[in-house]
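To start, one record:
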Amino acid sequence: MTAAEYNCCVDEHADGVYRFVLKNIRSEDKARDIVQEVFARVWQKARDIEFSRSKSYIFTAAYHTMIDMIRKEQHEVLTAEIPEYSGFTTLGPEYSDIHEILDEALERLPAIQRSVLLLRDYEGYSYNEIGEITGLNESQVKVYIYRARMFLKNYLVSIDTLI
């Protein structure tokens, strides 16, 4: 990949990668850091990457970098004292922001289900492409997406969620 092709990759894919990472980890600063690290890795390996496969490489690198960061944070949390979970919170009658309800529902999904669902429904990747990015086979991707959608369906139609 040439420098011009690299710049083209940054222009075309930076926003999509940022959205994907942000939806998964819910932190703008961490999402920016991951995107920056991904494009730094791409620059370092630019000679080895074909321009036609750069999008797949970028999203794969973002996914793996994000997973590494999540695992590192989980390890840090395990060493600290974990407070007891007090149960579900209910929303008051004045509450009407559907985006926050959807974001909360997405947060409740396991990381792998959230990732494959966002790659499919937000970014528009095919099952095959998602498998390449996550290292799963196509049937595993379909199962995770199905389970995520069923959880969201049940969660979002629950009366406790809407109250």
